[in-house]
Prior knowledge:
The chain is α/β, with parallel strands linked by helices.
Amino acid sequence: MRILIAEDDSRLLTQLDALLQQHGYSVDLADNGEHALFLIQEYTYDLAIIDIGLPKLDGFDVIRKARKADIKSPILILTARDRWQEKVEGLDAGADDYLTKPFHNEELLARVKALIRRASGQANPTVEFGPITLDTVAEEITVNGTPLVLTAYEYKVMEYLMLNPQKVISKTELTEHIYDQDFDLDSNVIEVFVGRLRKKLDPKGSLKPIETLRGRGYRINRHL
Length: 224
């Protein structure tokens, strides 16, 4: 999952970057509103975390302009301001949720996961397709109740597929959502991850959990 963080406090920006990467997210950073607006219009994010008090262009304006440009990524506001009027203004601008500084890392992570699930139409923290279950809280995938041993990137690929079951996901889209923006998009590494996942999810070859649509990409098999 790919997240944009827009925060002008360099120390907090570094902390958030490290926290989210530690939990398997691909992260892009902006320390002012103009850069944040450019990134959110240029790239597709699973979530944007935006501070209200950004220089050059404040967080409210970033959100308004992003929504006006039909950017649909969920947005979580970070704010040191605890006046209810400013929280309302942020939500009215198009944000989906807000978090007041200082905050606990666990709460931030819980809100991030909830917003990403909600955006994909999944209110429940667990997603099931046949015998395959994704637990977004434990960050674990099980088959018939047995946890799989997956690498971080294998988990990211499967999570993205399971949270977007209606879409055919291209190799490029998968790469953009699990790696930083400077990764080589022509790499065949996604094919390798999908091949490994198929072997781990379906060692007998009976489930066919991941479909390949030739020339288009991959899709979770919704008829498991």
